[in-house]
Each structure stands twice: as C-alpha cells, then as structure tokens.
Amino acid sequence: MLEHWYFTASLGLPPQTAATFLDIVTALDEPVGNERSEELVSSAIECLGQAGTGTALYALPHVLAAQRRFSGVTEVNARAAAHYRDIASVAPEQLRTRIGATLRATGGSEAHKALASLRDLLPDAGDGAAEADTSVPPYHDLVEQLAPTVALVVARSPDAIRRASGNSWSSPRPS
C-alpha cells in the first residue's frame, strides 16, 4: 500500500482523491469467491475510466491481474477491455492498435498471443525513452512514455513471465 500512496503523493493528488484511488487499487486485488467480489472489481475498473490516463496506467497491472482472476465474468472482461481501449486511445496513432492488442492478449488466457503482441510492440517501446527527461518528478511522464510503460507492465506480469518459460523471445517476428 505504501507504494500506491507514494504514487498519489508524487502526483500531488488531494487527500480525498488519493483515498479513492487507494480504495480502487484495493478493490482490484479482491479475491474470487467473496460475496459481491465480481461487482466490486467491475466497479473499480469502471472508476478508473474516470481517472486520468497516468492513474489508469499505474493501475494497469492490477486490472490485468483482476481480469485473469475473473476470466469467466463478462462484466469484468468488458470493463477491462474498455479500460485498455481508453489507454490505447491516447497513444500515437501508429501504436494504438498494437497497444490495445497487447493489453487484450495479456489480460486473456492465450499466452502465445500475449507474447507475440509484446514482441510486436517492443521495437517501438523504446522510441523516445532514451530521451526521457530524468528531471521529471516520478510518475509525471507515464503518459509521455506510454509504449514503454505498457511494455514493462506486460513483461512484468507474473502470469506472462510464468507462461513465457520455454518460449524464445529472440524468435523471428512473423512476416
């Protein structure tokens, strides 16, 4: 929870907004099987749609994990898909489709699609990252660094890493 508080403090969010965001992140981590857990997770993802893009990006690992936990729940899947579309919509036009596909595949159950989508995104994920302004306060450049942020979130996804074992990251890109 401390790292989430640090995020809100770094952005200078007002206390009530920070508390709401912390509640949303907590709700996204709700386990399957609790009474009303599906509704709670769906509502939390929907609330992120009203947050800024930086906040939505920060919460992305939690949304992906929630979608995988609640994979059979139509409402959670629909809200997660809308969340991914919202994030992809602010990407440069040439990356929108790939970012959306990468997020949808990572939230889904087909590891090979997630890895292929990530592999397609990686060449562009570094564009501009080397020129990133290191004097920018933490988290203030999440939106500017959208493709690298998405690529890192997907690559660090525990399920993606576990599912990737045995797969070659250096295999040639499909033509």
Outline the low-pLDDT stretches. Answer: 165-175
Number of E-type strands: 0
**Strand percent estimate:** under 5%
Q: Which series of helices and strands comes N to C?
A: HHHHHHHHHH
Largest sheet: none
Q: What helical percentage do the residues reach? A: 55-70%
Structural class per helix/strand content? Answer: mainly alpha
> How many structural units, i.e. domains?
1
Helix segment tally: 10
Radius of gyration: 16 Å
Quick rundown:
The protein has helices at 2-11, 15-28, 37-48, 53-58, 60-69, 74-89, 93-107, 111-125, 146-156, 158-164. Mean pLDDT is 83; it is low at 165-175.
Question: Explain this structure to me?
Answer:
With 175 residues, this protein is mainly α. The chain has one domain (2-124, 140-162). The chain has helices spanning 2-11, 15-28, 37-48, 53-58, 60-69, 74-89, 93-107, 111-125, 146-156, 158-164. The longest helix has 16 residues, at 74-89. It is globular, with a radius of gyration of 16 Å. The termini are far apart. Mean pLDDT is 83; it is low at 165-175.
How does the SSE layout of this entry go?
Layout: H1 2-11, H2 15-28, H3 37-48, H4 53-58, H5 60-69, H6 74-89, H7 93-107, H8 111-125, H9 146-156, H10 158-164
Helix pairs in contact: 1-2, 2-3, 3-6, 6-7, 7-8, 7-9, 8-9
Descriptive labels:
single chain, 175 residues, mainly alpha, 10 helices, 66% helix, globular, disordered C terminus
